[in-house]
């Protein structure tokens, strides 16, 4: 049987026990450093191909609704895509409206902007088969769950990845 290069093989290539790379990026919560943001919390990173897509809107909408439950369990949520910071701000308002949240409420977790695709490339989250209107690869739809522990200023991370095609819900 011949091995097939699947989206799961191409995306999110880190393995359990790998240290999740620290990064600094702009987000809807301002400039953030991943390891500082997580501290000693668990972290869930949602990577999605684009803002305002139906699956991603409902997925992040549900995560936003459940964010108090995640917080009770010391889990911090984050999202990432190749859209601009302004698009993320607009989309977060759209998600909150979809959730019938009180007007003016802030989206409960940061959405990281990576419109130059530097971060998704570094993390191995580009899907070479899915392209935007300019022919640029989109970030793959991945969920990354990471456990971080601080020890001597070193962040150790265990990681589990779930990847699906952009046309499929998780």
From TrEMBL:
Gene Ontology CC annotations of this record: cytosol; mitochondrion
Keyword ATP-binding set for record: no
Gene Ontology molecular function: any one: peroxidase activity
Domain Thioredoxin, first and last residues per copy: 14-157
Annotated InterPro entries: AhpC/TSA, Thioredoxin-like_sf, Thioredoxin_domain
Keywords: Antioxidant, Oxidoreductase, Peroxidase, Redox-active center
Any one of the GO BP annotations: cell redox homeostasis
Keyword 4Fe-4S: no
Family of the protein in this entry: Belongs to the peroxiredoxin family. Prx6 subfamily.
Name of the molecule in the record: Peroxiredoxin-6-like
């Amino acid at each position: 049987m011949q091995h097939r290069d699947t989206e799961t093989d191409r995306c999110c290539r880190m393995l359990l026990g790998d240290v999740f790379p620290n990064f600094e990026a702009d987000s809807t919560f301002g400039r953030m450093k991943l390891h500082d943001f997580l501290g000693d919390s668990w972290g869930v990173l949602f990577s999605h191909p684009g803002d305002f897509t139906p699956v991603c809107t409902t997925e992040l909408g549900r995560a936003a609704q459940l964010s108090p439950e995640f917080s009770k369990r010391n889990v911090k949520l984050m999202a990432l895509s190749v859209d601009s910071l302004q698009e993320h701000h607009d989309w977060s308002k759209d998600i909150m409206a979809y959730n019938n949240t009180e007007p003016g409420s802030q989206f409960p977790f940061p959405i990281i902007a990576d419109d130059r695709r530097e971060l998704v490339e570094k993390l191995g989250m580009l899907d070479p088969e899915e392209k935007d209107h300019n022919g640029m690869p989109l970030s793959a739809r991945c969920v990354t769950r990471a456990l971080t522990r601080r020890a001597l200023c070193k962040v150790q991370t265990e990681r589990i990845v779930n990847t699906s095609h952009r046309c499929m819900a998780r």
